[in-house]
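Minimal example, chain plus nicotinamide-adenine-dinucleotide.
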Amino acid sequence: MCAEKTILVTGGAGFLGSYLCERLLEAGNDVLCLDNFHTGSRNNIRHLMDDYRFELIRHDVTVPICAEIDEIYNLACPASPVHYQIDPVQTVRTNVHGAINMLDLAMRANAKIFQASTSEVYGDPAVHPQVEGYCGNVNPIGPRACYDEGKRCAETLFFDYHRQYGVDIRMARIFNTYGPRMRPDDGRVVSNFIMQALRGEPITLYGDGMQTRSFCYVDDLIRGIMALMDAPATMPMPCNLGNPVEFTMRQLAETILDLTGSRSELTVRPLPQDDPTQRQPNISRAREHLGWAPTIELREGLQRTIAYFERELSSPARVQQPRKTPLVRRTRPVQPHAEALARGVVSNGAGL
Ligand SMILES: NC(=O)c1ccc[n+]([C@@H]2O[C@H](COP(=O)([O-])OP(=O)(O)OC[C@H]3O[C@@H](n4cnc5c(N)ncnc54)[C@H](O)[C@@H]3O)[C@@H](O)[C@H]2O)c1
């Protein structure tokens, strides 16, 4: 990887974004972390705040912004159904307006841009395992559509900016990823099961628990994302990134019970609407063009994640500490942001 670039990471205070910021700094880059803290946390990036190459910008991607950058990783968007369904209109806005704003910025700055797309674009897939050429089976009016269709529209925008304006794009369709720094109240299956097991609460299985997912450990995924950004422009896009080893929800619950030594019972609830029954990536493209494949097995990744949640549970409630270093902003919000500030729609970063 070529070092000493200035790289913007939107959603940089989130679960995946915080690891990406960390790895990009380790590789010698300047990192601008942009986040509105909708689901992200200052705790995820607190350890980076004293690095002079790291800057935090409290900003919403739905509002245009200017910055001098070489690359953009666009990750801003809540990933958990619990969080993206709280304000579905904002979820669509984040995906669609956010993509337009970041693509406009990439065009102005002549920067390469990566989009964090998702396996959710495949919906409840009729093709198994999912290959990039499969166009998906998504309900456009269901409760998950704000995320699924938002991400699909973002994909369209990325490809249209590429065809129409020549923007250099990279795109990963990310499958379920887990690891330390997931929020305990995240609502995704791995964090749910671990928290329930550690608290001795019943583990909630939806449906018969035979629906499958494949789980990728965060370190593997971040390695894949960075390799994709550095891949030649001729590489076919998008590219699935995920772990092809498939587990049923029941197997996942049993593994977590085993690793935690918990006596929690399994309890069964009805399957939520539009919940996919099968999810497994075909990663031939990533293997062939990036030489990438996951290396961390589920049990090992779960052990590290359980240790993290145990620490979180045993430490007193984390209070937000005042930051040690002042915010230095080298970006200049364009007019709509100034208007939004005047209307009180977005924060000016005070109180970070
Ligand atoms: N983790 C996964 O398993 C997974 C799977 C598929 C796709 N993805 C994608 O990867 C990206 C990161 O996911 P994650 O798991 O880290 O989720 P996350 O919720 O932990 O992180 C998302 C970050 O984006 C920020 N954000 C949300 N809306 C914003 C806005 N309008 N403006 C600025 N910041 C905003 C949040 O505050 C948060 O810090 C998302 O785009 C998600 O769709 C993740």
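The first strand starts at residue 6 and ends at 10. The pocket of nicotinamide-adenine-dinucleotide is lined by residues 10-11, 13-17, 35-40, 60-62, 75-79, 94, 98, 116, 118, 174, 176-177 (CB under 6 Å).
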